[in-house]
Structures
1.
Amino acid sequence: NLRCFSPGNPKRCISWKDIEKGGLPLETDVVINLSGKSIGQPGFWVKSLKKTIYDSRIDTTKKLATAIERSESPPKVFISASAVGAYSLDPDKVYTEADVPVESGKETFFTDLCRDWEASSTLPEGCPTRVVNPRFGVVLAHDTDPLKLLLKLAITGSSVVGSGKQPFPWIHMKDAVQAVHTCIEDESVQGPVNLVAPQIVDNKQFTHALANACLAGVQKVNLPEFLVRLMYGTERADCILLDSPKVAPQKLLDLGFQFQYEDVDSAMRDIVEAECKEGGVLNMYMRKKKG
């Protein structure tokens, strides 16, 4: 289901069938599309799973684009998500929005997915709705399944993935939310926008920041590459977990966007603190470490 936010009925939900039959609700100002099946669950990218991942993004985006096109009063802006997976895995290049995302011959399932995901949000010429495609890095937030797994690994000393040298494009959830708000409010923003923090780190640096925030000390044991491939399959492991592009938030920087969490150390301290407030194993671990 889709959630409609309005002063009169903030909890109103509508279905995809409602959108297909009746179009967008009247006086819709902004459409934000973040739909898509998670790519983070363990398992191989078999044909059926890849189709689900693909369709859950492209089909839903096309439905919203069609609804916007047919609307008698189109929204001012269509925020339709994408990801930094749009870029090639070139270790010598830092990608900005001005770069061609992927060179011919270097395509992967993930780059193709992001390309089609963004293309499906395209509106016909003459439609007044502005389209923005936030290319999200890893969004760091507490109380999420991926972070809970990373925290468990961190406090057991085994969370560096593979060599640890692969880039880790990231952004704190609070900055991601504020960046999307900027994309909505600033009418000059359109097209792809890299939603990543300005600090470029690798997996080892991220892992150490997480471990330090948990008072867990130096991470001495790496998660072997063969085990990552066994858990996630070679295709997904090699283009997401064991390698990633280096990405800079150039458009946001040019706009003068102020990141609340520019460095990964401050981001992880905030997230671990928030996670501890929820209680549970991490809170007990931290209390024991602090004596």
2.
Amino acid sequence: MGGGKKEKETGRKSVTEKYDQSGRKSRIPAAYPVTMLVDLQVFVLPREKWVLSRRLYRHNIVEEGISFGFVRVLPQLTIHNLRRELAMQLGPDVIPRDFIFIRSVGNIFIQLKPKQEFELKVKNFLPPFTSDPEIYLLEVLPSDDPRMISPLPLLMREDTPPHICHDLCHHNRARKRDKILRDITETVQLRHDAELRRAELVQRANDLQSRVKEKREKINRRHEFWHKKYIEESALTRPMEASCNTLRAELNTVHRRLLAHLEGRDLPLRLRDGPSKKVKR
């Protein structure tokens, strides 16, 4: 089928759809004003400078890139859908059959992951996100590292054999299932470790409570011992205090009489040979 245009009624407005030579439709309706489209330059980077072990390019690789021209697309178009626009606008004989997108991050250029092709949009490759409106491609050959092949975009190709799509879908489902099982296993292990940690903390708390209880009981026993001792000693010292008070009063009396005699007063001085007999022993 040759290239051409086809009018389709959408209910509210007419949308013009473009078709390439293979009969596939463009994802950009012609109803969009030209002012909404942006020009994006397309460069293909040399394969021989790709650092396979690290899967990246050095910072000066742009100078060796080959320009394939430019495409006019919407800024909101995803990078995954940009693949079809590249083939339609530049031609399948220009764009490699299989390729990956390369993005500049700092001083290096790294591969765009399949999931990122659905998340990033054309606007992420335009100023102010980048210095120039450019996007870089790297051709992928069947003999290349399998990690460079993007299975998700391959599933969206209309010329992909059904059995390959089925195998890739089955592989993706199996990979997701394995990831879920790993996550469940890790969660169970984390919970088991948390339970062991909790049991250890509970045991330590019980040990501390037992030690505190033993120390409190020991302190209480000492307090009771010394309180009983204090009561016993208080009972023994009461008679002694009474005797001391009597002797102190008698001593004061003798002392006053002695002072009066020395001052020449006519007070008889009577001294006893011993302590007062009133004192009870």
3.
Amino acid sequence: MAVSKCTRLSGPLIQELLDSVDNFLFDCDGVIWRGEQAIPGAPEVTNLLKKNGKRVFFVTNNSTKTREMYAEKMAKLGFLAKTEEVFGTAYCSAVYLKHIAKLDGKVYLIGGNALIKELQKLGIQTVGSGPDPVFGGQSDWANVPLDPEVKAVVVGFDEHFSYMKLSKALKYLDNPDCLFVGTNTDSRLPLEGGRAVPGTGCLVRAVETAAQRKAQIIGKPSHFMFDCVVSEYGIDPARTVMVGDRLDTDILLGFNCGLKTVLTLTGVSNLDEATAYQESHCPERTGMVPDYYVETIADLLPALQG
């Protein structure tokens, strides 16, 4: 498929892409749904892809839901998705700690219930979740008691993030043998109407700054997210396409892993950004230029229905 980058995916090109791949990776928010509403036509697209023999997986940086929670949401919105087809950062973080890092101990967790559940499924105990308000003064913060069984600090989305949690994370990470994992580096979570709230990346960067250490990042654009899918399904990168709405996570993941990439314009990034990256000729930015773009993944429907 000798096509220039950032090409509108339409007409015969859609069928050419479908013929060239066996596996589809979809981001979720901004791609197949917005909030609690499915993107019009998205369930039909993913369901028809499966009917036509394609393997479909869902990869999301969101650490606030378990695989089961995602599968339940998808079922309600009309997607035919199995739990084991969902790869979120809560699940992938647990896989990393259990099977790659071979963690032997507890996790000090800055994160929520989904992370607790995914870690517990693999036999990993956590401490630290929930509110942890500040008490006392600087001497108290510097001498806060630690759990000697903690061997890793994991940072995900945590609405209860506090100065006390930051202090405890710093103390644990003063030990160079303590592992440091961040679920993702998304700095902002977009909301309807152009609004946004701080994302997990803000918390990860705060802990990195305090601890003067870099976290092992699990989510997109880290290669590990794709490695999780490969380890369970043995898919071929050359026969796989990543479909997402963010240039700096979804599209860059595809570039990092040697996948074909499709940007959908129903979410965060826009065509002007992609074009600017392409014209910059900057190596750090060209990896965020998609092979193709669509207005919505529903653009694939005519080819699938035909």
4.
Amino acid sequence: MRSTTRWAQGRDLMLMSHLQQSISHADIPTKILHNRTMVQLGLCAFRKGFIQHAHTTLNEIQSSQKSKELLAQGLSTQRMSERNLEQEKIEKQRQIPFHMHINLELLEYSYLTCAMLLEVPHMAAHQFDQRKKLSRTFHYQLRNADKSPLIGPPDSMREHLVASAKAMMKADWKTCADTLLAHKIWSLMPNAEEVKAMLKQKIKEESLRTYIFTYSACYDSISPLVLAKMFDLTNAQIHALISKMILNDELKASWDKPTDLLILHRAESTKLQSLAKQTADKLMYVMENTEKMLDSRGISLGTTFGNKGGNSATGLPWQSSWSNNLYQGNNKATTTTEATTTTTEATTTTTEATT
């Protein structure tokens, strides 16, 4: 299936084999063959424009940070101290010949491109809740780029991708497409021109989604003709994309047929409401952890705080040994202080009487 683009047939054959259920118990050569097959299926899905399927297929290999070893295309220098000469000899015998290698840079660029097309609109839709992440590898590249004190023109593959992602965050699809497709790595992709045309179309669509998610709160209504001109899409494509967003409950809006306008309903939560929800979630998390801690010590949080009288000795709303000891220690210190004060006053009175 590698030499063709019949991705659907290859996917069906892989699913019919049920190999995913037993691959963890297979021998190492079979695991290597399985990994290489999954990578080829992911790249095939990417060339056909199935971005979600390509990201899901390539995610396991790329997120492990050991794609070279998993594909038997080299040995990691970071693990040289973990294996002896015999193990190293066995692993070298498993290596794939060079003419059968999969370009790892092309593989990483394809995976990160899929992550960008999925993650940037997702970040715009959940801009007040960044806990939901689709690709941790993509976010890691963004954080590394933000740490750089000087940002120049993109040179490496990852710099091209980060620059494209930042342009898409601003809904600037032209800059995003020019920066992403300017890298020479795409010349190694089969049917490169068709893949570039597909990516350009995907960038337009995802930039439109990002723009609507980001600026929908600023509009009461907007014309699809304006959006079509901004993103170089047809009116039918604008209608199809936005209608799909409405059906998937991603956008609170409706079409006004007489005027052919998109009416936006401001049902999204404000920043204050999102922060309040996050605070409530964190407090709930702290409360659950506190209950688990008290249960492990044999203390019931509901019973102790439900006791209106609390501890009669301490006056606290819960009963525990450390609170009793603290209260008793405070009582002893207070009694000692009072006794010292009384002795001092008695000595002062005796001195005055003698005088």
